[in-house]
Amino acid sequence: MRQVYLDYSATTPVKDEVLKEMIPYFSEIYGNPSSLYTLGLTAKEALEKARKQVATFVNAADKEIFFTGSGTEADNWVVLSTADALKNKGNHIITTKIEHHAMLHSCEYLEKHGYEVTYLDVERDGRVNPETLKAAITDQTILISIMLVNNEVGTIEPIKELTAIAKERGILFHTDAVQALGNLTIDVKDLGVDLMSLSAHKIYGPKGVGALYIRKGVMLPSLIHGGPQENKKRSGTENLPGIIGFGKAAELASENLINHIAHCSSLRDYFIEQVIANIENVTTNGSMEYRHPGNANLTFEYIEGEAMLLYLDMVGISVSTGSACSSASLSPSHVLTALGIPVEMIHGTIRFTVGDFTTKDDIDYVVKQLTEIVEKLRNISSVSNKKGW
Q: For the chain, is the Cβ count within 10 Å smaller at the N or the C terminus?
């Protein structure tokens, strides 16, 4: 059976070049980077090369990149450590209603411990209105965290405008750039962010490794305590093969960025056009002007997204009904809810995301199968039968 993977926002396959770079660090160059003999020093040199590769990709200094176990860990580090470090200054944090659960659940945890959190509304296209942020700031605000690209609908936020507001008030600004890395040009200096979360497995690197950009001068306490790794910021023996893979993936993504964006946006637009041309009552969610190049978040009226997902899986097509971290939940998407989409339509929503290995033939196959599946599901839908659709 043909296999078509259209869930690149959930994770990506590790590219051959990345895997090749990683393999020696499992069995040949296996030294602990903290060791002072040759095997350890060789490992340390490779680790620092990877740090430079990731830093260069986002225009940061090498010493501003700290490796973590995931983007989730990076988000938690920012929220929990900032709250602790600045508790004498204030107890108010601002984020949005459409953040990844790594951010939302961290904030919910803090709310149980006496902190106040404002969850900003977004516009119908998923963008934050800068005026909404201005109105939410108080003299107790210590951190603003707004993601660069939404993981469900692909909307790109106006981060430069938002960081300018934070700077005027002297407030730390963090962005979760996990979905943005490798899909947009990212320049931490141009964006004006103080902190930025990253992850390797969204850019054809390995799972289990992420990074946090901490702008020079920002004092962020450690979240994990122990040894002196990561300049005494993140203790624990480094995941050297993973970090090597992250570095190589960042290097490849940087070299391929322009072609990647052109390839993905072209296929995404073609896919949306073909779906709308062949299937009635389909709507696109999120901004089309400010959008992740590979994201097509579509609502199919009168049917359940879970049923579509299962039928698509039976013909070898992998998609998601939301973010991968919450797709097992029966609760309606918090992102689509924040966009003002009715619950019955939310349940008919599928996220399709294309990537480097997606072809036009793949898209044609998916559109053909999807058209047949939607027709079949609408025919058996009790709602469809009652309405005569």
A: N
Tell me the pLDDT tens digit for each residue of 254-272. Answer: 999 999 999 999 999 999 9
Q: What is the pTM of this model?
A: 0.95
Is 53 within 8 Å of 251 (Cβ atoms)? Answer: yes
69 and 23 in a single domain? The answer is yes
Is residue 357 a contact partner of residue 350, using CB atoms and an 8 Å limit?
no
**Which residues are known to be catalytic?**
325
Q: HSE, CB side, 13 Å, CA atoms: give it for residue 338.
A: 22
Q: Could you tell me which of 337, 280, 347 has the C-alpha nearest to residue 308?
A: 347
Q: In total, how many domains does the chain have?
A: 2
351: left (phi over 0), alpha (psi -120 to 50) or beta: beta
**What CA–CA distances, in Å, run from 123 to 66, 152, 385?**
33, 15, 34
End-to-end CA distance of the chain: 32
Residue 330 has pLDDT above 70, yes or no: no
Domain boundary among 224, 252, 280: 252
Those residues with Cβ within 8 angstroms of residue 260's Cβ, 6 or more apart along the chain or in another chain? 182, 183, 253, 293, 356
C-alpha span between 294 and 32 (Å, rounded): 38
Report pLDDT digits (tens) over 281-328. 999 999 999 999 999 999 999 999 999 999 999 999 999 986 445 445
What are the start-end ranges of the E strands in the chain? 4-5, 65-68, 92-96, 116-120, 141-145, 172-176, 195-199, 210-214, 282-284, 295-300, 317-318, 349-353
By the 10 Å C-beta count (0-12 exposed, 13-18 middle, 19+ buried), 72 is classed as buried
